[in-house]
């Protein structure tokens, strides 16, 4: 997606060859116009896949998941990072461990909102090692639903997440795929 | 907002006279069509107030804040519940304590995204005791910005948040104002 790649080139800050900050338009400040275009582009790719719900992990994935769900005309479901006190029975949970960050958290979903009638598109802002996406997949399968695909805003294609997920036969579609990056330099994958 | 009040009546679950669950369309599953209408209605109220940014606290406020920012044509800023590792210098922080929940968290904003040029509309999903909104206000003032108002999806008007904030001269506008609620009964404030 050219608009997004241009924005990453002009406003993204490469902290080191592993960390890209996009705080000015995706994570901390959000550009609603760009976010709507992102949602449309993800929806366009998955529009014929019979998606019944768009799921995302709180909280950076909420904005692109919402605009994608709007474009597809289906509900969005937020996978919660901790069991809410007011969500009670019929919960599915899974532990997600981030080896890179050295943290783990519990991901929760209510069986009311994802169940055996659903074909779910997972949307998230970043894909790197695929730990969060793998946790989301596991949780959605626990809830007896199937996976329509994974839609990503920015993928660090030099990290193993994409290949690990694609190897399971999942359609992993990212709007910006970074092949290599360095302090003053970002190279995207060719389409 | 009639559409929202009807949805609260038909799908909201009153757990006790203090807790209302709206997980099926606001907090856990999100209805994108209703969320767009919510954003438009909040924007309509504040459209002549010179709003430069819409700010919200992660994560349930992100959806209504994004649709409101879209309608106003301004960026959205997410006040982070913890200092991100990739957000480094020039941060403002404040501690928000929830006496009802017995928890506290650190709220963070970067001076890059809210500063002395900004007139900020705070948007959140719920207003009850006003603890989160008061923390957001404090943080935005720390960042040298002024407050255009507070836009809320659902207000529990029988709790003190609204009056506490309005007493400071702030325009607090809620789309659904619950006067009283009970297991089988929700009464809204008259307009």
Low-confidence stretches of chain A: none
* Topology, number of strands of chain A: 11
Give the number of helices of chain A. Answer: 6
Mean pLDDT, all residues of chain A: 93
Structural class of chain A: alpha/beta
Layout of helices and strands:
The structure is a homodimer of 191-residue chains.
Chain A: H1 2-11, E1 13-14, E2 20-21, H2 23-27, E3 29-30, H3 32-46, E4 53-57, H4 62-72, E5 76-79, E6 91-98, E7 103-110, E8 119-127, H5 131-142, E9 146-156, H6 161-166, E10 172-182, E11 185-188
Parallel strand pairs in A: 4-5, 4-8, 8-9, 9-10
Antiparallel strand pairs in A: 1-2, 6-7, 10-11
Report on this structure.
The structure is a homodimer of 191-residue chains. In chain A, 31% of the residues lie in helices and 35% in strands. In chain A, strand 8, helix 5 and strand 9 form a beta-alpha-beta unit. In chain A, helix 3 packs across helix 4. The first copy, chain A, is globular and about 50 Å long. The mean pLDDT of chain A is 93. Chains A and B meet through helix 2, strand 3, helix 3, helix 4 and strand 5 of A and helix 2, strand 3, helix 3, helix 4 and strand 5 of B. Strand 5 of chain A pairs antiparallel with strand 3 of chain B.
């Amino acid at each position: 997606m050219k608009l997004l790649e241009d924005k990453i080139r002009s406003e993204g800050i490469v902290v080191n060859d592993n960390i890209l900050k996009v705080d000015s338009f995706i994570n901390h400040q959000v550009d609603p116009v760009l976010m709507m275009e992102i949602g449309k582009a993800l929806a366009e790719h998955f529009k014929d896949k019979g998606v019944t719900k768009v799921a995302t992990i709180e909280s950076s994935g909420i904005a692109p998941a919402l605009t994608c769900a709007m474009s597809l005309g289906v509900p969005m479901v937020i996978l919660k990072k901790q069991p809410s006190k007011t969500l009670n029975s019929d919960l599915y949970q899974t532990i997600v461990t981030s080896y890179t960050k050295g943290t783990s958290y519990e991901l929760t979903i209510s069986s009311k909102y994802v169940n055996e009638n659903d074909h779910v598109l997972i949307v998230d802002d970043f894909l790197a090692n695929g730990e969060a996406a793998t946790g989301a997949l596991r949780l959605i399968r626990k809830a007896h639903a199937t996976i329509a695909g994974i839609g990503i805003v920015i993928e660090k294609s030099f990290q193993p997440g994409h290949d690990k997920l694609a190897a399971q036969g999942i359609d992993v579609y990212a709007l910006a795929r970074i092949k290599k990056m360095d302090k003053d330099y970002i190279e995207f994958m060719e389409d």
